[in-house]
């Protein structure tokens, strides 16, 4: 029997690459294209996908022929792209990334969907790691690269097993969260990101009502407290002792944090109270599968985290370079508060991830920085990231830098990142921490390494 062939347009994206790899490991012939590959970028991703036997084509329509049974596209792909045109010409069905994710998710008996405007990637990774280490054979489809799985073939944003459990991130930003009917759902938090709080609360309430076995809810989030569930509701908290899973005695460590759960103290190799909250969410979710909380917490002591979540890239001449994915007000506040628990000036480059997001929440993002920065810290911003497509460029990072200056903070706008690199290398001093912060742009980790080399 001939294997079915599917193609992915925009295969380098974190969500698309994970799905492409799962399909390949499931027995499909997989091919794909990405304009970043054509431009000479994302070479690691390209080679990693090829190492699994995925065929990479130029994004000129050549990947699409009569052998292809379906073309999957990311939300960033336009109808004018040659692959899409070729699919129309060959009458090949075209589906979006979240269509496939929903199909895969619902093919498992026990689907765990992790939702929330912050912490989804880390919590998904934690749940997957616990289940994998305890031999529960989960399939995990993640948006971040899993540091514990760096040595596996391909891009490490998946865990593949042939079991009955599937763990995914449920994305509220594009509304695809409405596609899932979970066995277990997790609602980490609800904060401003892409949609109004009222819209988000309705989305997450509906998400909970579509859950069949158990819903995990963060009691520390005001917007989550009203969430009701048609099944078992399990809560977690760092503040409320009445929560089903409550952590106390948080203590910052040189390279992590410790916390007390019940009568025992556990550690994480990650910094920040928000990561203890993520751990509680993961432990609570696993408890709904019958896993003992102390066993789950013990496993998490060896969890290394995910790439681009306060990831230390390296140190040079007493200066530490850190890469972080934070891009909405809550994520930025959580990362900045975690960093301020340790000594050293912060030089933060924040690259806004789009014109629409900055129109919607730019003021709140700047407020998050200003509320956590002290007078020695410096905020640096290049121009707003543009990934292509049709967009109105009626605002600039310079506008937001001025807002930070009005609040008395040291903030500077530079049209290009090259100028920011020069500024950092000229002004960085021993003890400083350089934070490169932003989403969507796969070249930000490379920029971190450029700065490290420049230092």
What report would you give on this structure?
With 455 residues, the chain is α/β, with parallel strands linked by helices. The chain has three domains: 5-96, Rossmann fold, CATH 3.40.50.720; 108-300, UDP-N-acetylmuramoyl-L-alanine:D-glutamate ligase (3-Layer(aba) Sandwich); 311-454, Mur ligase, C-terminal domain (Protein-Tyrosine Phosphatase, Chain A). Helices cover 34% and strands 23% of the residues. The chain has 14 helices and 21 strands. A ten-stranded mixed β-sheet has the order 8-7-9-6-10-11-12-13-14-15, sandwiched between helices. It has a six-stranded mixed β-sheet with strand order 16-17-21-18-19-20. The chain starts with a strand and ends with a helix. The mean pLDDT is 93.
Number of domains: 3
Q: Spans with pLDDT under 50 lasting ≥5 residues?
A: none
In CATH, the architecture of the largest domain is 3-Layer(aba) Sandwich
Please estimate the helix content.
25-40%
Question: First CA to last CA: what distance?
Answer: 57 Å
Quick overview of this protein structure:
This protein has helices at residues 14-25, 35-38, 43-51, 82-89, 97-106, 120-133, 197-209, 273-287, 293-300, 329-339, 355-372, 397-406, 417-427, 444-454; strands at 5-9, 29-33, 55-56, 68-73, 94-96, 110-115, 138-141, 158-159, 165-169, 184-187, 214-218, 232-237, 245-253, 256-261, 264-268, 311-316, 319-324, 346-351, 378-381, 410-413, 433-438. The protein is α/β, with parallel strands linked by helices and 455 residues long.
